């Protein structure tokens, strides 16, 4: 008997900006690159260096639109960006459709209004965004929640910073 083959494929998605559907307007979404800020820990008696996590770097996201999005301002308020999608799970020949949701509170870092001009083509408007809040849910299960302003990082429901907030008197 062969190995079981199991994989997920996003087969449909939509972008919402402040709860307004942007169906058919987003060309591409990239990012949600979550990186730790680390420093070297070295002292007398240690044979080598050790990386110590000091927090998170900026969580960045890029959205490429097929038009010029006039209602997003470079110096405007934070925006709520939501991605809803259908994930087709293929598990040994059985196909199930599962919901996936990504919610983010974002601020505009840069706005490439023109995109890249090529003959017979317009590549769209590209917006670089920084996220202060991110929540990822798949099939009803919370995978990740990061709230930079409130020192919250939850992975699979486990609050990684609860003790730190308690010890700092933040709870």
Helix content estimate: under 10%
Number of strands: 14
Distance between the termini: 54 Å
Query: How much of the polypeptide forms β-strand, as a percent range?
Result: over 45%
What gross morphology would you assign?
A: globular
User: Which consecutive residue ranges, at least 5 long each, have pLDDT under 50?
Assistant: none
- Mean pLDDT score: 86
Element-by-element helix/strand order: EEEEEEEEEEEEEEH
Biggest sheet descriptor = 10 strands, antiparallel
User: Cα-atom Rg, whole angstroms?
Assistant: 20 Å
Structural class: mainly beta
Number of helices: 1
Structural description of this entry:
The chain is globular, with a radius of gyration of 20 Å. A hairpin with a 2-residue loop joins β11 and β12 (141-147). The chain is mainly beta and 171 residues long. The strands form three sheets. Strands 1, 2, 3, 6, 7, 8, 11, 12, 13 and 14 form a ten-stranded antiparallel sheet that branches. A two-stranded antiparallel ribbon has the order 4-5. The chain contains one helix and 14 strands; from the N terminus they run ββββββββββββββα.
């Amino acid at each position: 008997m062969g190995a079981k083959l199991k994989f997920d494929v996003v087969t449909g998605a939509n972008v919402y900006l402040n709860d307004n559907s942007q169906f058919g307007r987003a060309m591409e979404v990239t990012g949600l690159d979550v990186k730790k800020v680390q420093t070297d820990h070295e002292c007398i008696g240690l044979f080598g260096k050790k990386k110590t996590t000091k927090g998170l770097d900026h969580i960045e996201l890029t959205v490429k639109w097929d038009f010029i999005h006039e209602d997003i301002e470079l110096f405007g308020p934070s925006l709520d960006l939501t991605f809803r999608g259908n994930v087709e799970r293929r598990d040994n020949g059985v196909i199930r459709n599962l919901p996936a949701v990504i919610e983010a509170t974002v601020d505009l870092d840069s706005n490439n209004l023109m995109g890249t001009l090529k003959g017979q083509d317009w590549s769209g408007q590209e917006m670089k965004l920084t996220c202060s809040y991110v929540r990822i849910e798949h099939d009803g299960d919370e995978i990740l929640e990061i709230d930079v302003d409130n020192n919250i990082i939850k992975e699979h429901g486990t609050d990684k910073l609860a003790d730190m907030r308690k010890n700092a008197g933040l709870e």
